[in-house]
Specification:
It is found in: Cell membrane. By secondary structure, the protein is of the alpha+beta class. It is built from 33 helices and 28 strands. The structure holds adenosine-5'-triphosphate (ATP).
């Protein structure tokens, strides 16, 4: 299976050489031996390309990217904004006014339609740019060997000739001829439609073999479901199989979500309602008052215009998209807009431990070998420190210690790197980094041994093994992994004298329990002499159960302090936090206790989970907060069990096998740093920093965005409600219309384009994380909000009608009274805005009034517009308005204050029970 790579030529690779090597030369790389492919591409697999060669190749072949998917022409996208029932009604109204030859009305209504489309188009562009930016944050990377060392580069910079390293869960960055594989299987459904992963080796296939049979190739865009590999890139960008069939791999995010669909449905129903009411209105006016039909039709047009919230769709989209952008700034990258809605209703967060709740900065602290306990000094990955036994420094002269370090350092894919600033980091996995650092402290020389075959680590096996040719001339199978797994496969143990003796599993278990009770992560080492077939390949089945157990190491991985705080916030917000880890039960419980997760019920192990049926599991899943030694399949069962108990579950994951659980969870959360591409693809949210705190922040953001959408609706709908009511009442009672259709449009437009957008930027209310999660089945506006919308509509309508009739009866000109009525409507809206800023609680507090600067900016903009409306002569001509003297301005302000006071009282009546008791007992 494994064929060690050979160096094809020792000739130096230069930029000119690579430029000369053409991708066509390796077009049938699958049919050529990999040595031949390497020769043609003139690259040494141990060195990779030089920087100049890579730059030259990039210049020649272009970036490794597929062309963007075809998008509608901007004009088409603009036109699409007219395709909305609400707009049809408006166009109908314009037609009606044209019939009556009220040209000014027609023009203004049409203008509104166009302005609405322009605003929608611009906002959509902005929303899409926001999402695009977020997508770019998720752009894949690749591990390439350049100038002799491995580096992670943006997948776009991969060029033909690059040596790449692939691991389980990676998305293959380009078309790659494999030169070294271990247990490799790749899912190629994107290309072949075949969802069963195909096994890959380095063997050549026949010239002209179908894609699915080209076993020595890893194709761009396909996924590694198991194993590891290295290979040489033979095609990039459009010059790959996926490029040739020209399919976009990355899912194209649309701006549509269940919420926007819900709103669209609401819009349709509303339009129908408006039509029915318009008919009713016309028949009422005609039947009861004998109002002339021309006047009625004008009123009908005004009514339709008044009742329709034109700005609503754009408002929802932009609020969602901007919210998602804010979330990304807090390191939670939302892959699906709809996740925002679900995040706000999450009731249980199931989190990994390592790296999410803990720092993932591992240091080996204590070793136990055949009853000798060693202490290790030093922190972080710096390979400086001492290993002591009873206070005495020990070296590799100690044969047991030597074998232990040999296993831990050779069964290891991680490298310690000293960066320019002199500090030490790792390329690879923290657990392995800690072991490399331990080896460094003992000045162990890796290069003296050579690795012949590898069984990569997997979360199912919980171990990794290599066959290594050791400097003394022996060949050994070295195994490191979870102590219970290794104990189960061992029959003997290494004594202090370097002999083998019968395995004392009981003593080892005591050591393991003692280490894990201190919250240490425990890893064990075992070995056995290699057999002939182990030199070729290693498989789980061939490991056998005759291993020699060598010892265990305890590694510290301190909890993240900020995660402890975030867990507390979650508990206060009525959200349970559960730890699901592959680690040992003792370690998991110790850490869970430190972090405030364990509720005293202790840990349930993967084995115990397996022994329960689905019914029992539901109880266990609810009762316990710590699940240890779990495999990815257990996550899926746990998600199902919790959902069956009515929980809305957010589940984290990083490995390939976590993908099904993430898909099943209400919110799948993938790790951005540690997670594989497969997992990210299955997730709704990707954490850029792998930190639990970010999940809590995302939930908080989800709640804020949802609140703001609800506020925008509760704010916007009474605007239309009030105007429609004014027109309806006037016609029903045969009064002069307090606002002309044009004036109604004015109010709609100016409030719609200013005030409503203030909510996209509204900060979270105090105590947003001291509320219980939202009921996921409840609509965005619940009954109490509908009551509020209805009452406020009537209230503002009443104030407007009363002021209008009062001034008419006092003998004012119709123009003056109408200008006043229009201004009253606008000002009432402004005051109502401040009431809605805190939807269910008292608003007149500095934290509500002054936190959102944009709201004030919008109010200022609106004031300017309204002043123009009252005082600009040319607007007088269009809108039939007149100048108001200061006394009238006082009337409008008083009306606004009145509306604010009354709506605050209304909130008290509607929400008193909730407002006084937002803090429900935390769930633990
Ligand atoms: P979490 O699921 O919270 O991230 P985890 O990292 O411990 O926890 P896994 O990565 O599945 O979960 O590891 C499970 C166990 O496998 C570990 O407890 C450890 O004993 C062992 N293990 C982890 N990494 C390696 C490795 N690189 N080589 C060998 N064994 C390992």
């Amino acid at each position: 299976m494994r064929s060690p790579a050979q160096t094809p030529s020792t000739r130096e690779t230069t930029g000119a050489d690579v430029a000369a090597a053409s991708a066509e030369d390796v077009a049938s790389a699958y049919a050529l031996e990999h040595q031949e492919v390497l020769r043609r591409l003139e690259v040494d697999p141990e060195q990779g390309l030089s920087s100049e060669a890579a730059a030259a190749s990039l210049e020649q072949h272009g970036p490794n990217r597929l062309p963007d998917p075809a998008q509608d022409h901007p004009f088409i996208r603009f036109i699409k904004h007219f395709n909305d029932v609400l707009i049809y009604v408006l166009i109908g109204a314009a037609g009606l006014t044209a019939l009556l030859q009220h040209w000014a009305d027609t023009i203004v209504i049409l203008l509104v339609v166009v302005i609405n489309a322009v605003v929608g188009f611009l906002q959509e562009g902005r929303a899409e740019r926001a999402l695009e930016g977020i997508r770019n944050m998720l752009s894949p990377s690749a591990d390439v060997r350049r100038e002799g060392s491995w580096a992670t580069v943006d997948a776009e910079l991969v060029v033909p000739g690059d040596i790449v390293r692939l691991r389980t869960g990676d998305k293959v960055p380009a078309d790659v001829r494999l030169i070294d594989t271990a247990e490799l299987a790749i899912e190629e459904s994107a290309l072949t439609g075949e969802s069963v992963p195909s096994e890959k080796t380095t063997e050549t296939s026949e010239q002209g073999a179908p894609l699915g049979d080209r076993t020595s190739m890893a194709f761009s865009g396909t996924m590694l479901t198991s194993g590891t590999a290295t290979g040489v890139v033979v095609g990039t960008g459009e010059n790959t199989e996926i490029g040739r069939i020209n399919t976009m791999m990355s899912e194209v995010e649309t701006l549509e979500t269940p919420l926007t669909r819900q709103i669209a449905r609401f819009g349709k129903m509303l339009s129908l309602g408006v039509l029915v009411l318009t008919l009713l209105l016309v028949s009422l006016g005609w039947g009861l008052h004998g109002t002339p039909i021309a006047e009625l039709l004008q009123a009908a047009a005004g009514f339709a215009v008044a009742a329709i919230p034109e700005g609503l769709p754009a408002l929802i989209t932009i609020t969602l998209a901007l919210g998602v952008q804010t979330m990304a700034r807090r390191n939670a990258i939302t892959r699906k807009l709809s996740a925002v809605q679900t995040l706000g209703s999450v009731t249980t967060i199931c989190s990994d431990k390592t790296g999410t709740l803990t720092k993932n900065e591992m240091t080996a602290e204590r070793l136990v070998l055949a009853d000798e306990t060693f202490e290790v000094s030093g922190t972080g990955y710096i390979p400086e420190g001492e290993v002591t036994l009873d206070g005495q420094r020990v070296t590799l002269e100690h044969s047991g210690l030597r074998r232990f370090v040999e296993i831990m350092s050779l069964t290891n894919d991680t490298e310690l790197i000293r960066n320019e600033a002199g500090s030490w980091t790792i390329a690879g996995e923290p657990t392995e980094g800690a072991l490399k650092s331990l080896a460094g402290k003992l000045a162990f020389d890796d290069d003296a041994a050579s690795r012949l075959a590898t069984l990569p680590f997997s979360s199912e096996n919980k171990l990794m093994a290599t066959t290594a040719a050791l400097p003394e001339g022996e060949t050994f199978v070295l195994v490191k992994g979870a102590p219970d797994r290794l104990l189960a496969r061992s029959s003997t143990q290494l004594t202090a004298q370097g002999q083998t003796a019968a395995l004392d599993a009981e003593a080892w278990n005591e050591h393991i329990d003692a280490l894990s009770a201190d919250g240490l992560r425990v890893l064990a080492a075992a070995c056995r002499p290699a057999q002939a077939q182990d030199r070729e390949s290693l498989r789980m089945e061939s490991l056998g159960e005759e291993l020699i157990f060598v010892g265990v190491v305890g590694i510290v991985d301190p909890p993240r302090q900020e995660a402890i705080d975030a867990i507390k916030v979650c508990h206060d917000a009525g959200i349970q936090v559960k730890m699901i880890t592959g680690d040992h039960a003792g370690t998991a419980t110790a850490i869970a206790l430190q972090m405030g997760i364990d509720n005293g019920q202790g840990a349930i192990s993967g084995a115990e989970l397996e022994a329960t049926d689905d019914e029992e599991l539901r109880t266990l899943a609810q009762r316990h907060h710590v699940f240890a030694r779990t495999s990815p399949e257990h996550k899926l069962r746990l998600v199902r069990a919790l959902q069956a108990e009515g929980e809305v579950v957010a589940m984290t994951g990083d490995g390939v096998n976590d993908a099904p659980a993430l898909r099943r969870a209400d919110v799948g959360v993938a790790m951005g740093l540690k997670g594989t591409e497969v997992t990210k693809d299955a997730a709704e949210v990707v954490l850029a920093d792998d930190n639990f705190t970010t999940i809590e922040a995302a939930v908080e953001e989800g709640r804020r965005i949802y609140d703001n959408l609800r506020k925008a609706l509760v704010f916007l709908l009474p605007t239309n409600g009030a105007q429609a009511t004014v027109v309806l009442f006037a016609v029903a009672f045969g009064w002069t219309l307090p606002l002309t259709p044009l004036q109604v449009l004015w109010v709609n437009m100016v409030t719609g384009v200013t005030l409503a957008f203030a909510f996209a930027f509204e900060p979270a209310e105090d105590g947003i994380m001291r509320r219980r999660p939202r009921d996921p089945d409840a609509g965005i506006v619940e009954t109490r909000h509908v009551v509020q919308i209805a009452v406020v509509s009537l209230l503002i309508a009443a104030v407007t009608i009363i002021v209008f009739r009062w001034r008419i009866d006092a003998g004012d000109d119709l123009e003056v009274a109408r200008t006043l009525a229009t201004t009253v409507l606008v000002v009432c809206q402004v005051f109502y805005l401040f009431s809605v800023k805190s939807l269910e609680k008292f608003s007149l507090r500095p934290s509500v009034l002054f936190k959102n600067k944009l709201a004030w900016l919008m109010v200022a903009a609106l004031t300017l517009l309204q002043v123009g409306f009252i005082y600009l002569p040319w607007l007088h001509t269009i809108f039939d308005t007149a100048v108001l003297d200061p006394f009238y301005l006082l009337i409008t302000l008083s009306s606004g204050v009145l509306v604010l006071v009354l709506t605050e009282l209304l909130k008290l009546a509607l929400y008193a029970g909730r407002a006084s008791n937002p803090h429900t007992a935390p769930r633990r």
